Amino acid sequence: MQFLKPICWQLLIVLVAAFPLAAAAQPATMNAIVLHQSGGPEVLKYEEAPRPQPKDDQVLIRVMAAGVNPVDVFIREGRITRFPFIPGMDVAGVVEQVGNKVTKFKRGDAVYAFLSFEEQGGYAEFAVANQDHIALKPKSVDFEKAAAVPLAATTAWQALVEKAGLSGGQTVLIHGGSGGVGTFAVQIAKARGAKVIATASTANQDLLKQLGVDQPIDYTTTKFDDVVKDVDVVLNAVRGDTLARSYGVVKKGGIIVSITGPPDPAELDKHGIRGTGLGAHPDAKILEELAKLIDAGKIRPIVSAVMPIVDVAKAHEQIASRHTRGKIVLKVAEAPKE
Asked: Closest Cα partner for 260 from 233, 227, 236?
């Protein structure tokens, strides 16, 4: 029986050594922004939370940066009723782990993702996403700029390309051209060869020109409906009375796409135009197309501020002002050294 002792000791050493490594590789918790109730920015709490585990068709992402969107404010104020809850629908980071059925990604891939309304969880050190909601990160931008892209740019793409069918030679009017969706919409429209008219405040006229807007309009001094007519497409990305004033500037057979509420069917019929509301949804193929345009220099994410994740309340206050230039991004972790 003595010949068994060396083998047993070797086995014991292997097992003892393996347990700490396994525990270190799979921590049970992470740091995240957690909601325990609806309310103002003060309900956003930075604390420990259970680390998510990917299902068979999901990817676990080590988050480097997370985008902040107006919808995050609505969610915090009462759009969800299940608590505790980690918000955040835009992330950029590195693949940490993949589910058994994931074939598109591997550990170490730099990716960005549009987390669905059901998934969310982006304001955290780790987030899970369906593999069909993820794409490889554009190589030409850092994680902070990549995190600004998914929801806003996908919204602009689905509005202009999928809903409106915008093509070269057409004219589009974009309300809110300096905002998150608007800055991407302007660039997507220009990349497709369209003439772009866009509205923004006085302070953002220079940005509209930098983005290539053909006819910038300062809405504080000029009524767009006095100087615009016969456009093929209107993208309404703001609230207020812009939608009601837009029906008369669209040519017969044209279309209005609104992301802030559906157009009035009676007004559409009255003017002989089409219209639709839009709630964006994740689509990895769109993220792949956007990455190509970004790496080709045709789209650049506009990030007005990068804040530490612990300053999320400040980020929400700025977003709620409805006067954010481009996007605000939360920095979650330092990018890995290559």
From this structure: 236
